[in-house]
Design brief:
Layout (H helix, E strand, L loop, with lengths): L1 E5 L6 E2 L5 E2 L3 E2 L14 H4 L8 E5 L2 H11 L4 E4 L10 H4 L1 H11 L3 E6 L8 H4 L4 E7 L4 H7 L6 H13 L3 E6 L10 H11 L7 E3 L9 H11 L4 H9 L1 H21 L6 E3 L2
Parallel strand pairs: 1-5, 3-6, 6-7, 7-8, 8-9, 9-10, 10-11
Antiparallel strand pairs: 2-3, 4-5
Bound molecules: iron/sulfur cluster.
Iron/sulfur cluster binds next to loops.
């Protein structure tokens, strides 16, 4: 892992996911093989594979303290192109510090993470303007290690959400993206929904795989090594629109049925 400390000029940036997003790190130690954020290498100039570099925005606190004074209050998504609670957060504590600054300044905070490490911060996250979401894709730990190598085990994320809920924090779940014929099976969807059915969730967002060409080389590499029989099918999913549309329709139908079975459908928002 190549780690660098850098200085940023701006941290509180406009975002389509909320009013703003804050990313204290450029790069992500979770290294998900399907991560859409890998496109940032085009602008950062990094040649290392995604997951093998992180730039730490070491002046994040100072920059944010100035920005919250001059920008209108709103909801802040943490984080949009990295995970705010990725392994380096344990050392730098920048996301924690930024949440404190945002809350003191009257902003709302929405967290989405694949880490259970946010448990260390429940003392500050126990706040009416905070909501915490965990991304879940599979309960199969072999698959999780293959596709999301640096993340927390899925059950740990669910347990962390439970602990946050017990503190009265608003919690939610992001299901997906699912990998066709690998993590989108009825068995996997059923296991995930059963596991979250007892949580008191504000909402669930279920997302399909977005077959962006820039994630294809990384996904193909895992397929070639572990699922060679699926390479041709994935090529169609990525590059043949009708195949992709038919696939997402099937996924949506299957997910709806399973969500209904577990009484989750009313809290569900779906992209397919
Ligand atoms: S946790 Fe999110 S940002 Fe980090 S590698 Fe995975 S998908 Fe990308």
């Amino acid at each position: 892992m190549k780690i660098a400390q850098i200085k940023c000029k701006s941290l509180l940036v406009d975002s389509g996911l909320a009013d703003y997003a804050v990313n204290c790190y450029r790069g992500c130690g979770h290294g998900c093989r399907y991560c859409y954020a890998r496109y940032i290498r085009r602008f950062s100039g990094h040649k290392e594979p995604w997951g093998e570099f992180v730039d730490v925005r070491i002046n994040a606190r100072e920059v944010l303290e100035k920005e919250v004074k001059r920008k209108p209050k709103g909801r802040v998504f943490i984080s949009s192109v990295c995970d705010g609670w990725q392994p380096l957060e344990e050392k730098y504590r920048l996301s924690r510090a930024c949440v404190q600054i945002l809350l003191e300044a009257g902003f709302k905070v929405t967290i989405l993470t694949k880490s259970a490490f946010f448990l260390q911060d429940l003392d500050i996250l126990e706040h009416p303007r905070v909501s915490i979401g965990a991304t879940l894709t599979t309960l199969d730990e072999d698959l999780r290690r293959l596709f999301e190598p640096g993340s927390s085990p899925t059950l740990q994320r669910i347990k962390a959400l439970k602990a946050a809920d017990k503190k009265g924090i608003t919690v939610w779940v992001f299901l997906g993206p699912f990998l066709p014929e690998i993590s989108d099976t009825e068995e996997n969807l059923e296991a995930l929904m059963k596991a979250i059915a007892r949580l008191r969730l504000d909402h669930i967002y279920l997302d399909k795989l977005n077959p962006r060409p820039d994630i294809w080389p990384s996904v193909r590499e895992v397929l070639e090594e572990h699922f060679p029989h699926l390479v041709d099918y994935y090529k169609k999913i990525f590059f043949h629109r009708p195949t992709y549309k038919a696939y997402t329709k099937r996924l949506g139908q299957a997910a709806r049925l399973i969500a209904q079975k577990h009484n989750l459908f009313d809290t569900m928002r779906m992209s397919c």
